[in-house]
Each structure stands twice: as structure tokens, then as C-alpha cells.
Amino acid sequence: MTDTTHSGELATDESRRSSMTKRGGGLAGARGRTTIADGVVEKIAGLAARDVDGVHAMGSGLSRTFGAVRDRVPGTGGSKSNVTRGVKAEVGEVQTALDLEIVVVYGVSIADVAGDVRENVIAAVERMTGLEVVEVNIAVSDVKLPEDEEEEPEPRLQ
Predict the structure, then answer these.
(1) Which of 22, 51, 91, 108 is paired with 116 by a 20 to 30 Å CA distance?
(2) CA angle 111, 114, 119 (to 5 degrees)
(3) Share of the chain above pLDDT 90, in %
(4) Domains observed in the chain
């Protein structure tokens, strides 16, 4: 009889130990919360949009001009601001919506470029963040003409 009691206690101790050392065993969402900042989604979308052939730049002419000036000022972030130029994101707990402003290369089909940008941005944002992209609005603000010279910054030293 003492053996039965002892083995019963042993089994109870083992189940307690295994429940204390058991890892996993629950939904990941029950163990914490992940939030993603708007700027993170904006950077992902900006890089994904720039990867599409036919996209010359992001943002309106005015924002690109201010950005070029800001990039020349030491200590203002430099090229980091380029990534999110022309991108605005609204991020919720499980969904996000994006507005993009692009400049396309002359001669390409704007509809095709916009479709490719939309697909690339949705795929990148959903893959990297797990958020559902509910909409990607694209505004084409300019066309890069072949004879337009690249904006070269003037050298600071003569």
C-alpha cells in the first residue's frame, strides 16, 4: 500500500515538473504584443516601390527639393529621409493603408507601373510585418523626361 501512495506522489511530482519546464504550449499572441510604427511600414513600402522598373523617384517635386536641401545639411539624417519620401502609412493593430506619390520614367505605361508598385509594396509589407494591406493609393506627380538633367548638387568648394 505504501508503494501505491509513493508511486502516486511520484507521478504527481513528475507532471508538475513537466508543466513547469514545458515550453511553447500556448498561442504566441497570448505571450505579448507587437506594435509596428508607421515609419517602419513607410520604409518597407518606399524601398519596395523604388525597386519597380519605371519608378524614377518618390514624392512631389517640392518634397524632393526640400529633401535635397535637407540631405546637404550635416546631422539631419541624410539619405535616411529619402526612404520614406512620398510614402504615408496608417497602421492599425492588424491592417495598414498606404499612400504613395511617385515619379515615373517617360515612355512607360503608368497603369502597369502603378500595378507593379502596388503588388510589390503589398507583398513586401505583408511578408515583413504580417499586417494586412487594405489599400495602396498611388498618385503619379511627375514624369521624368529623357532630356531632364539629373539634379547634381553644386560642389561646396570651388
Answers:
(1) 91
(2) 125
(3) 56
(4) 31-144 (3.30.70.1350)
pLDDT digits (tens, 9 = 90+) for 36-50: 999 999 999 999 999
DSSP string over 16-81: HHHHHH----S-GGGG------HHHHHHHHHHHHHTSTTEEEES-HHHHHHHHHHHHSTTS-TTHH
Q: How far apart are CA 84 and CA 80, in angstroms?
A: 8
Q: Using an 8 Å Cβ cutoff, are 97 and 134 in contact?
A: yes
Task: Identify the DSSP state of 146.
Answer: T
CB-neighbour burial class of residue 86 (10 A; exposed 0-12, middle 13-18, buried 19+):
buried
Q: What pLDDT sits at residue 64?
A: 45
- Please provide residue 77's backbone torsions phi and psi, each rounded to the nearest 5 degrees: 100, -20
Going by the DSSP 8-state scheme, the letter that residue 14 receives in this structure is H
Residue 101 contacts by C-beta under 8 Å, 6 or more apart in sequence?
Answer: 58, 59, 60, 63, 86, 87, 138, 139, 140, 141
